[in-house]
What we know:
Layout: H1 3-27, E1 50-55, E2 60-65, E3 70-75, E4 85-88, E5 94-98, E6 103-108, E7 113-119, E8 123-129, E9 135-142, E10 145-150, E11 156-161, E12 176-182, E13 186-191, E14 196-201, E15 209-214, E16 220-225, E17 231-236, E18 242-246, E19 253-257, E20 280-282, E21 285-289, E22 295-300, E23 305-311, E24 316-321, E25 327-332, E26 340-344, E27 349-354, E28 360-365, E29 371-376, E30 381-386, E31 392-397, E32 401-406
Antiparallel strand pairs: 1-2, 1-32, 2-3, 4-5, 5-6, 6-7, 8-9, 9-10, 10-11, 12-13, 13-14, 14-15, 16-17, 17-18, 18-19, 20-21, 21-22, 22-23, 24-25, 25-26, 26-27, 28-29, 29-30, 30-31
Amino acid sequence: MSKLDHDRRRALVGLxxxxxxxxxxLSGCGASPVAPAPVTAPTSVGTGDLGLVIERARxxxxxxxxxxxxxxxxxxxxxxxxHASVVFSRDGLYGYVFGRDxxxxxxxxxxxxxxxxxxxxxxxxxxxxSADGTLVAAQNYTPGGVKVFDARTLELLADxxxxxxxxxTGARLSRVVGLVDLPGRRFAFSxxxxxxIWIADCSNARRPVIARYNDIGRQPYDALVTPNGRxxxxxxxxEDGLAMLDLWEQPPxxxxxxxxxxxxEQPLPVYKMPHLRGWAVAGSHAYLPAIGRHEVxxxxxxxxxxxARIPVAGQPVFVMARPDGRQVWVNFAVPDYHRVQVIDxxxxxxxxxxxxxxxxxxxxxxxRGESVWISCRDDNRVEVVDTHNLRSVARLALDAPSGIxxxxxxxxxGF
Length: 415
């Protein structure tokens, strides 16, 4: 070995020793040596672009990513999801799944696992989460009423039976619909068999205070709260019109709006009850489905008076506004439930008719509205459509998909 090679070798050995002594010196500051850092640091994932899609035939939900338009995984074991809905915790980490069989399940969107599940009723059709995220409420058909739970533990805090005949032994209970959250740990809901609207103040969740508004009209079938939390509006199945409760008035009072929009006309048979929860508010107008008619009603939200009707392809089920309000998308009941129509709100005209698949059951816009996800149950897929050029940009294979729910709902009142 030459002198130059010998010197190089000594230098390399010296550097290795120095590095080793430095590591020992650093680890000596603690009780045990410091483990080497992993080559790849763990990746943290946010929840803002996640969502859940109901696979009703399997009793499962698919966890999806709205930015990449793909399925991340499945969560099974959720029971009967034939009329399921979802609300989200404020941070978007948890989804609360309400099953038709009365099941209430809290799922973790990041671990894609069930964290808690209870059977809280015999027949349930949805629920809500309080504005502060601490309470979850379920609306029930059997037994009729509302139950309020701790959002963290699912402990039952209050049971509110929807009594319609004064109470006592054998009291008759109404089916409950239209449950929404209101500011201040309150919930509003309607009694289908009681022709009433109730508001539950759950400031003390174990002892809610109930305000009752009776004789609002026959058979309220669904309801919504406007985005500012001021108006609670219930659709009436037993007669034309809607019942509106102004929550800013003191005291609040119910008044009828659009009371005669179908008078003098022969309505068609109703093939599927329309939903008001997803109705469209765009600018100063609201767009809502007309029961048993091939029309979308346009309502001035200042005077709450009808200003126009838009002819559409069938009986509307969901009438939903793109987040910027420029478009309103409509799907339909049988036999037209393979179609979706797009209304241009400035002209209030249908500008496109799409046929994304068989048995379109639900639609959900991405948070900024660049695309809409459409569930096509009988084709076992979700179609993702660009809302600007109206072209399909993705297709997700799912088993009999129905409701689509994105975590952006966590920041919206009434969703």
